Amino acid sequence: MKSLYSKFLAATLFIMVISSFTGFFIANAYYQNNLKPENDSKNMEIAMNIAQYAETQENLDQYLKHAASTGYQLYVVDRQGERHSFGGSFDEKNLPFQTVENVLNGENYHGMRDFPKKTFVTGFFANELRNSVGVPFTHDSTQYALFMRPDIKLLFNEIHVLLGWMGLAIFILSLIAVLIWAAMIIRPVRQLSHATNKVGEDGFDIDLDIHRKDEIGQLAQNFKDMISRLGELDKLRRTFVSNVSHDIQTPLLNIQGYSRLLEDKTLSEDDRYNYLKVIQEEAKKMSTLSRQLLTLSSLEQKEKPLFRNRFKVTGQLKSLLHRYYWLIDENNLSLSYSF
């Protein structure tokens, strides 16, 4: 049987994994629908500025190298089909020929905005030539097509490591905190479970050391109150059974004693009648006690109020002496009394 602690840990890990995937999907959807057009527009403006300054430079290659060193990947194509890369290289140079021709003819290319949506690749990190922006420019009467995108490896190399370690630290610290918190919650529950088992083995004398002000603390207090009341009820039942057992034994002895006296054939009719009357009274008393035993199962846990009444014990004492006459006679005793 799995413990509550292991179930809590498994549920926590499951929630963390599901939350991570859900958060990634939400962030990816937000980028695709909101940030990607904005990112395309921003990079298009930068590409147009680079192209504008490139038209006024004497040494085009040196200028493009300097521009790429600021954190961009540049890919330049001229009319003759010569291709030059500046800065970081693209993983895939999958730009269609017609797209290059369109840019050479003066059109702008919005590859970032129109990059296909993917579930596990946001597009921002896809290092592909088609995931770029393209602008035309002219240098020394030669038409060029400039394709540009930020160099993610250059810009995010250190921050990737930092974010990775940060994410790992957050995950480990969160897991440790959850384990400690779960242990604090599970500990009193285990104490309650142990106390419940101890009640079945050792009775109602339980010392439950739980002092909390939350629902578990309230549960522990209710458990203590229940154990206390059950202990009182158990004592009441034991006392009741002990008293009833004693009260049953007494009339049985009286019946047995007077039965032996009735075996005496020299008894007068009056004595015989009196002895039989005592036996009948004792039998009635046993019947009453048997009915009282039936009330044992219906004893209430709540205490009932007691009412005091005056009572004369003279009749009780006479009846008591009359019932035990057989025992006095059997021991050859003489007893006198007055009330």
Automatic annotation (TrEMBL):
Catalytic activity: ATP + protein L-histidine = ADP + protein N-phospho-L-histidine
Gene3D superfamilies linked to this entry: 1.10.287.130, 6.10.340.10
Membrane topology summary: Multi-pass membrane protein
InterPro entries: HAMP_dom, HisK_dim/P_dom, HisK_dim/P_sf, HssS/ArlS-like
Record localization: Cell membrane; Membrane
EC number, as in UniProt: 2.7.13.3
Protein's recorded name: histidine kinase
Species annotation: Halobacillus trueperi
